[in-house]
Amino acid sequence: MILTHRQLTTDRKLDADVCIVGAGAGGSAAAHALSARGLSVVVLERGSFLTPKDFDQREENMFPKLFYDAGGRRTRNRAIRVLHGHGVGGSTLHNINLCKRIPDEVFAEWELPRFNAATLRPHYERIEKLLGVSRIPAERMNANNRLFKKGVEKLGYRGGMLSHNREGCVGSGFCELGCAFDAKLNALRVLIPEAVRAGATFLADTRAIVLERDGRRVTRARAETLDPATGARVSSHEISARSFLCAGGAIETPLLLQRSKVPDPRGLVGARLHLHPGVAAFAEFDEPVLSWQGIPQSYECTEFLSYEKNSAKRVWMIAGSAHPAGAASMLPGFGEEHDAWMRKLPRLACVSAMVHDSTRGSVSLKGDFGADVDYVLNDADRRQLALGLREAARILLAAGAREAVVPFVTPLRATSVAELDCAPLEVRDLDLDMVAVHPMSTVWVGRSDDDSCLDETCRYRHLDNLFVGDMSAFPSSLGVPPQLSAYSLGRLAAERAGDVN
Amino acid sequence: MAESGNNWARPLSRRSFLRWTALAGVASVAGWRFLAPSQGDDPGPLQHLSANQARILAAAYATITLEKDPARLREAVSFMDGFVGRLDDHTRLEFKAALLLVEHSPFLFHGYLGRFTALGDAERARCLEGWRSGFSWRRPVFGALKDLSYLHKYTRPGSWAAIGYGGPLVAGGGAHTAFEKRYRGLVEGER
Ligand SMILES: Cc1cc2nc3c(=O)[nH]c(=O)nc-3n(C[C@H](O)[C@H](O)[C@H](O)COP(=O)(O)OP(=O)(O)OC[C@H]3O[C@@H](n4cnc5c(N)ncnc54)[C@H](O)[C@@H]3O)c2cc1C
Ligand code: SF4
């Protein structure tokens, strides 16, 4: 059953085999796997239970319903917007459905004998089957992606079609605001209904406050149900379980562990944040682009992406799109200057570049529930993003753009490659908008107590019955869109969490 | 701590921001009475912002979006008031402090003898340009005002024709129920 703030009007005490915190990719995959084994599962989810009728395709309504801090969460220095979702389905409600596995080179770098490509393979296979992962047909490309592909091919760069998890997609283009057409084969549509039918209980609008312990065991989770409209507390609950699996995502999971004061002798929890920060270049074309229509991202350029250790090519390029308010926030200036840009919006194409980051940041509590995300790009990653911006602009010019623009505070504008190549291009904080949508590796798997929070079964090293099953658990940047890995990791963590006596 | 190879990359010094904010606060209560705030229009009922904060926000909104109509400004302020309520406590406090600093910034940074809300359009635009492109610790404040202003402006259907945007595809702003049957019976007590 799913219980929301409407049902959870009185305090409850619940008992389960496994209590899961977070109903996103990892948490719902874990709930799905555990309930299929016949185990009793209680899932706590801070966000609401939203179904297609709730996704009204309005930015002002959906940002608060789908994102922490209504989408306004930023790094401590304010340089990078960090988007992280909530709701029954977590970030899979609003993500863009791109599907990739972790490359072998990344696994190899971790050198973990029991946490490698072979360990995750069966979970990837199962998830890909459940979510109907398939190649996006070339005829589904929208104009923005077609122009991107044209530029990539003209320059002889490496590129290709991406894979996704959609069925019945009408190409509305509103993916980042939730799918009103229920075409996302995500946690909400696939895993959660099956888990519920197998007996799992989901408490929506309910956040885990702390995990309480007795010695080396977590004994119960304390949680509270909040009214989503006002934030006021509606009721409080205690959930006792044999094991606990944290799947709150790479920002919230370390915060829950810090709030719970779990033993952490080396202060590792929250300490190794990667974000895949991204930047975007725009270009004006003569013909309409209408980048907000159709599947937003279907084609990739991997010319500047290699997973070799210490590679000098670590940027991934894809098409970018936004609805008007999102686009307005990224386009340069204000007043008349900005107005002129917005009038060009139908003819603007966008390419974004995301870095497979070597920067390490950290996450810690700000007050009781706020997130202090401390992340300052290192020079190597800045150079990668600068490379990505220049190449994104080059690709757009090669595709026939009238003018390419990098929206720095003083925008870089180029009508030819010669002009682009002459222009100095540096990525400095607060000089252009940076967005991160893939937080990861804040409570990571490793070899020993000295260098990691989790063992290779995703068990928290200092407690016997606490597991992590979300993006926090990966030891480094993955360099690929992470949702498949989060789902798979949830299943992996559930294996051992379900065995605890 | 985040690892970083470059120190110049830490542009937002919280300390300097707070110092200036404190100065603006002292200024507003102590000496600079002659820098009278604009009485402005009544911002209407507010939940999270004071009337003064709302006036500062309205002035910034008008300069950023070029909106002049008092009724639309009131609606914008009421919308932004609601959004401020969704910020976490720390960020909300910081935002309010930043508004105070914006109000006194003409005197502190630009040599104008007047508060932000009392300036004319061109002077306000010059001040905001300072926030947009000046010292990098000021830029996030401009960014927040810009994001909030355009979130309101470009989510109003009236703004869409000019930018070629057709709006939502679902009828009646979200009454799209064809797919609900997959979810029927999942919520306790609902069929
Ligand atoms: C805009 C955007 C686009 C993206 N596009 C793609 C894409 O195309 N392909 C891709 O592979 N990835 C994409 N991602 C990333 C992907 O969606 C995430 O990496 C993935 O969902 C992470 O899974 P998770 O289980 O770690 O966390 P999430 O899916 O974020 O789930 C965590 C859940 O836990 C809940 N929670 C946290 N703390 C608590 C608590 N204390 N109590 C109760 N509940 C709690 C949260 O509310 C949330 O619902 C995108 C992300 C964003 C933001
Ligand atoms: S593009 Fe497809 S998946 Fe995305 S919101 Fe529209 S119908 Fe849904």
Number of strands of chain B: 0
Bound molecules: flavin-adenine dinucleotide, iron/sulfur cluster
Average pLDDT confidence of chain B is 79
Gyration radius from CA atoms of chain A, angstroms: 22 Å
Distance linking N and C termini of chain A:
25 Å
State the CATH architecture of the largest domain in chain A: 3-Layer(bba) Sandwich
CATH class of the largest domain in chain A: Alpha Beta
Report mean pLDDT of chain A, rounded to a whole number: 97
Helix content of chain A: 25-40%
Low-confidence stretches of chain A: none
The largest sheet of chain B, given as strand count, sense and whether it forms a barrel, is:
none
Gross morphology of chain A: globular
Oligomer: heterodimer
The DSSP helix count of chain A reads 12
Measured between the Cα atoms of the first and last residue of chain B, the distance is 50 Å
3D shape of chain B:
elongated
Count of the separate structural domains of chain A: 2
Strand-residue fraction of chain B?
under 5%
Tell me what you see in this structure.
The complex is a heterodimer of chains A (501) and B (191). In chain A, 26% of the residues lie in helices and 22% in strands. In chain A, the strands form five sheets. In chain A, strands 1, 2, 3, 8, 9, 10, 11 and 21 form an eight-stranded mixed sheet that branches. Chain A has a seven-stranded antiparallel sheet with strand order 6-13-14-15-12-18-19. Chain A is an alpha/beta fold. Chain A contains twelve helices and 21 strands. Chain A has two domains: 2-60 and 84-132 and 176-270 and 441-497, FAD/NAD(P)-binding domain; 138-163 and 278-356 and 378-428, Cholesterol Oxidase, domain 2 (2-Layer Sandwich). By secondary structure, chain B is an all-alpha fold. Chain B has helices spanning 14-29, 51-65, 70-84, 89-110, 121-133, 139-153. In chain B, helix 3 crosses helix 6 (139-153). The longest helix of chain B has 22 residues, at 89-110. The relative contact order of chain B is 0.12. The model of chain B is unreliable at 1-13 and 23-37 (pLDDT under 50). Classes of the chains: A alpha/beta (501), B mainly alpha (191). At the A-B interface, strand 1, helix 2, helix 6, helix 8 and helix 9 of A face helix 2, helix 4, helix 5 and helix 6 of B.
